[in-house]
Specification:
- Helix content is 49%, strand content 19%.
- It is an alpha+beta fold.
- The protein folds into 2 domains: 7-87, Arc Repressor Mutant, subunit A (Orthogonal Bundle); 96-266, GAF domain (Beta-Lactamase), CATH 3.30.450.40.
- α6 (97-113) runs antiparallel to α10, α7 packs across α9 (181-201) and α8 packs antiparallel against α9 (181-201).
Length: 268
């Protein structure tokens, strides 16, 4: 594969690229469900930006409503995402008609599997849930909209890679190798196996890669008209999983569900 061109080099020659906006988005992307509250120091460490730059950005983002500043936490206070972030996400989610079409079959499969079924899309080098359905017996797990995880460690991410056109898949894998070398070196065999699984079975398997207590199966949904790949997964706690159920039952059921959703979307 050809070495990836560094994004910084591309942007340095791009007069249309706005560095200040990019840095502001870097600040917002620093927050996660695991670490929802951060100091300016935390943000600087995660983004590589200087503390004075981060201070100016968090001040501006707070005035605009994209951050909340909790002054009583620590010496200088801490920040968390503000309500204005929701107003950015809502138009995207509201216009993804696949969510409405998929809700009922997702819940039916989740109940059958005694697990949960989720729909995800790519977010940089991660996958992010945009819809999820749980069976009644999974109250102790909370997969939810907005949850993200690295692409290479999940069946969902590997199914996404399998569904890409060859050149785009090669470019994405190149980017993974350059930007997340440790993860890539650890999970490259699973990625290769996932690509093979998809060719042979029509779905990708995950056996505790992201959570050792959970096994998953994933199937991509391609929307040719809008050049978008989404992925459905079905996840089950190991204690609730019968031997051979992933390959012999849940994988084929999930693949059938996705093909039915594709057909329903084509008639819209």
């Amino acid at each position: 594969m050809k070495p990836a061109v560094k994004k910084s080099e591309e942007r340095g020659a791009d007069r249309q690229f706005t560095t200040t906006l990019s840095r502001g988005l870097q600040v917002l992307a620093s927050f996660s469900a695991a670490e929802p509250i951060l100091t300016n120091k935390d943000i600087a460490e995660r983004t590589g930006l200087s503390r004075p730059t981060v201070s100016r950005l968090t001040y501006t983002l707070t005035l605009l409503g994209y951050l909340q500043h909790h002054r009583h936490l620590g010496k200088y206070g801490k920040y968390e995402l503000g309500n204005a972030v929701l107003s950015l996400a809502h138009p995207l989610l509201a216009n993804l008609s696949v969510r409405q079409v998929a809700r009922l079959p997702m819940k039916e499969l989740a109940d059958h599997a005694r697990g949960w079924v989720s729909l995800g899309i790519r977010e940089r080098l991660n996958m992010v849930y945009i819809e999820t359905a749980r069976s009644r017996g999974t109250r102790n797990v909370k997969p939810d909209i907005g949850q993200t995880f690295p692409m290479v460690v999940s069946a969902m991410g590997r199914a996404y890679l399998a569904a890409l056109p060859a050149k785009e898949r090669e470019a994405t894998i190149n980017e993974l190798q350059v930007k997340t070398p440790d993860l890539w070196n650890t999970f490259a065999p699973q990625v290769e196996q996932g690509l093979q699984d998809y060719l042979e079975r029509g779905f990708c398997l995950g056996r505790g890669d992201y959570d050792p207590n959970t096994h998953t199966v994933a199937v991509p949904l391609r929307r040719p008209g809008i050049h978008q790949v989404m992925v459905f997964n079905c996840a089950v706690r190991v204690d609730n999983l019968a031997p051979g159920a992933l390959e012999g039952d849940l994988g084929p059921r999930l693949a059938h569900m996705v093909r039915s959703i594709e057909a329903a979307l084509d008639t819209e």
